[in-house]
Amino acid sequence: MALTIPEVAANARTAANQLQNVTSTQKSQVLAHIRRELEAHKEEIFAANAQDLQLAQEEVAKGRLSASLFKRLDIKGDNEEKFNTLLQGVTDVDNLPDPIGQVTRATELDQGLDLYRVTAPVGVILVIFEARPEVVVNISCLSIKSSNAAILKGGKEAYHTLAVLTRVMQSAIEGVVQDIPFPKDAIQLVSTREHIDELLQQDRYIDMVIPRGSNQLVRHIQNNTRIPVLGHADGLCSIYLDDTADVNKAPGLVVDSKTNYPAACNSAETLLVHRSLLGSDLLTKTIKSLFDHGVSLRCDPPTLQFIENSPVLGSASYKKDQQYSASTDEDYDTEFLDLCMAVKVVDSVEEAITHINTHGSKHTDCIVTETPAHAEKFMNMVDAAGVYYNASTRFADGFRYGFGTEIGVSTNKTHARGPVGLEGLTIYKYRLYGQGHKAGDFGVGANKKAYLHNDIGVDSVKNKFVR
Amino acid sequence: MALTIPEVAANARTAANQLQNVTSTQKSQVLAHIRRELEAHKEEIFAANAQDLQLAQEEVAKGRLSASLFKRLDIKGDNEEKFNTLLQGVTDVDNLPDPIGQVTRATELDQGLDLYRVTAPVGVILVIFEARPEVVVNISCLSIKSSNAAILKGGKEAYHTLAVLTRVMQSAIEGVVQDIPFPKDAIQLVSTREHIDELLQQDRYIDMVIPRGSNQLVRHIQNNTRIPVLGHADGLCSIYLDDTADVNKAPGLVVDSKTNYPAACNSAETLLVHRSLLGSDLLTKTIKSLFDHGVSLRCDPPTLQFIENSPVLGSASYKKDQQYSASTDEDYDTEFLDLCMAVKVVDSVEEAITHINTHGSKHTDCIVTETPAHAEKFMNMVDAAGVYYNASTRFADGFRYGFGTEIGVSTNKTHARGPVGLEGLTIYKYRLYGQGHKAGDFGVGANKKAYLHNDIGVDSVKNKFVR
Predict the structure, then answer these.
(1) In a domain, B34, yes or no
(2) Out of A222, A381, A402, closest to residue B107 by CB
(3) From its record, what is one biological process in GO terms (chains A, B) (predicted)?
(4) pTM for this entry
(5) What's the domain range around A364?
(6) A419 to chain B nearest CA, in Å?
(7) Does a structural domain hold residue A453?
(8) Residues of chain B contacting residue A381, judged by C-beta atoms under 8 Å apart
(9) How far is CA A437 from CA A143, A431, A451, B108, B234, in A?
(10) I need a labelling partner for B55 at 20 to 30 A (CA). Which of A457, B90, B368, B431 fits?
C-alpha cells in the first residue's frame, strides 16, 4: 500500500536523523554500489524508459507534449551515451570531497572548553523536477554525499523510468552491509502531480525545497510553502556596454551572452548601451553580429534610430520588424529564453545600475568597460548573485565555477546565492566540548572568569570531525 | 505626512542599493557620529523616555502591563548606567571587523578570468522587537556595520523614546559629510502595531525578517510571511545524564543549565537520565541541588519512585506537589522559562537522542558522560544548532561564542544557525573579472579550452574588496 505524503515526509525525517551518523567511507561504498546496480539493471531501466517514451510519443502526436520535452525523456541516448554519462556522474559525485564534518570556525572559550562550528546536512530536502529522468540519480547521489534525505518528485511523463531507477538505487543502498545501517529512505520517490501541494505543507519534516523546472513551477512553489526554497524563478541577465567598452571585446561578449544557449537562465536578455556609443563602430559591429547570429532586437527610440540611419545595419540586409523593432516597456522585464534581446540607451553607469536593480532578476549581470572604476562601481552596486567585468554571463554555472556539480542557481538573498554546489545542501552545528563548565562561573566580579576566545586555527582541526 | 508601508519598504530598498557602495571608513564615521549625537541629545531622549514611562505606569496600575516590561522600558538606569551601556554598544559594534567585502573563495577559471566569492549585505532587513527601546540603537548599528538597510518596528509602549532615538540617529547619518552620500533611510522606524502584517507582505523589497520578542510574536511572523525569518520561536533545550556521567560534573551542569537564567531560550527544560543512575549518589545530588535552587520537577514514574524512596529526597524537607510531581506528556514539549523542569528516564544514549530529536526545538542540547563514544554519537545525531559535551546549555550565546555581538539565536536549518553575529546579516556575491572571455570558447573538442580551476588562495586576496 502506498504511503501517505505525511508518512513519506516522516520517514525522510527519520532517515535524515540516521544519516547524521554515517561516515564518508559508507557514503562512498553506497555510491559505488549504486553505480554497479544501475549498470547491472540497465536493460530493465531501458525497458521502463521505452514504455515512457511510447506513451510520450502518443502525447506528442496529440500535440500535448513538445518534441524537445520528448527528447529529454530518453535516458539511453545514441550508443547508450546518455546512460553512460549518468553512470559517470555517480562516480564524479563520489569523488568530490565530503562536504560534511568540515570545521569552519574553532575557538577556545576557556581552558578545556572548545567550540567548533562544523558543517552538517540540512536534513530533509524535497526536489521537484520535470521531464529529464536522470535528474533523479544526480540528486540522489548529491543528497547521499551530503548526508541529506531526499524526497524526489518527478514529472508524470517519466513515471516508469523514475520508478525503476529509484527502486534500483534503494535496493543498492540496502545491499551494502555496513556497521551503521544506511537508511533506505535516504531517497524516496513521489510520483503523481497532485502531491506537490501536500508536500509543500510538510514544513514540520522538510527543511528545504529545490525546484528544477519551469519559471511557473518555481513561482508556484515559492508562493505556496513555508519551507525555504532554493532556486530562482527568473533569469533576467543584462549586459551593459560602457562608454569605454573595447571594440574587440564587446561584440563577442554580447553575442556569447545571448546566443551560446538562449534557453539558459544565464543568457543575457537586455543590452544596455552608453549613449556615447550611438554612432560608434563598436555598436555597429555588436548589432551586426547579433543580427548575423539570428538575434532579433527590441529597441528603444535612440537605438532604433541608430540602426535605421546606419549604412550597414539600415541597409536592405536587415529588416525592420524582423531583425529589429520598437521595444515596449514589458520587453525590459521579459526573460525571452530565445534569440531575442531588449536594447536600451543609458546616460551613465549609474543609470545602468539602476535599470538592472529595478528590472533584473538578481542572477548575473555584466559590464563591458575599460574604466576599472566604473567596473568596481557596477560590481559593488548591482545587487545580483554574479557581477561580471568583461566576461560572458554564460559563465554563471556550478561546473564552470569549479564546484564539480550544480544543484541549481539561486537568486535568494539568504543561505546560498548563485550557482549552488554541494555546499548549498549543508548548514552547520556548533559542537562545544567542556569538562563540566558552567556559565555562571563567567562574568564580571570577584571569583568570576573571563572568556579566552582564542582562535584555535581552523587548519589545525580541519578534519577533526570528518567521519 | 507619514509614508505608507510600501513606500517605507521601497525607500529601504533604494537605501540598500546605495549602501552596497559605502566604505568601511564611512560606516565607522557614521557610527562614531551616532554615538556623539545620542550623547548630545541625551536629555531629549530621557524626556521622551519619561513620557513613555509615565504612560506605562498608568498601564501597570490598570494591570495591562507587567512590572518587568515596565522596568525594561527605562533607558536611563541608575546614574545613567543603562544609557552609557547603550553608547558603549555603538562603539563596540564600530570596533568589530567589517563583515562586508571578505573573500571566501577565489578561483582562476582561465588565464585572466578570476572568480571571487565576496561577502555582501543581505539587503533590507525588517526587525520586529518588543519593549526594550535600546534595541533600536543596537540593531541600527549592526545594520549600518553590515551595510544593510533596516526597517525597525518597535512596541507601542516605547513610542516616544524610539521616535527620538531614530530621529537623532537619522540626523547623525545625514550630518556626516562624505564623498559617497550615506542614505538616511538606512534606518527607518515604523511605529504602530497594525503595520506588522502589511510589512510582512513586502517580500518584493524586504530580504529578511528578524523577530525579537515572545514565542507568540515569532510564531505569528513565521506563519504570515514569505520573507525568510531568522530566529527561533522555542528554546526547548535538554540535558542528558549518561550512565558514566561524572558525579562531580553532573549536578553543577544541570543546575547551571536550569537556574542561571531560567527565562532564557538556552536554559534547559528537560532532564533525561540513564536508567542505571536510578539509586545513584549522582542523581540524588543532582536532584537535591535542583530542589535547593528552587526548581520544581515534573517526573516520570521511575524518577518519582526514586525520589519518594530516597532517604534524602523523600524526607520531609522536600514535598510532593511542591518540589516534585508526576509529569504529563505535555511537560516534555513545554518551554517552562521558569524554575521548573521535566525529568524522564531513558535506557540508552540512542533513546535520549530520539527523545530530543522528537521533542526538542533544535536549539542546544547537552550530554553529560565520561564515554567519549557516546558523546560523539550524541553530538552527531542530535539535530540541534548546539550539541554540548559536559558543558552548560547556557553557553549558547553570541557574546560567549566570541562573536562580539548577537542578532539573535536561530533554529533555522538554512542560512544561519545557533547564535548569530554580524555574519548572519551577510550573503555573498560572485565577482568575475575577465578580459573579454566567452563561454563558447570552452568545452570539449578542437580549438576549445579547458577550465583551469586553480585555487587562488583566499588569504592572498582576503582584503582585495574591503572598501
Answers:
(1) yes
(2) A402
(3) L-proline biosynthetic process
(4) 0.94
(5) 237-395
(6) 9
(7) no
(8) 17-18, 20-21
(9) 37, 14, 12, 46, 24
(10) B90
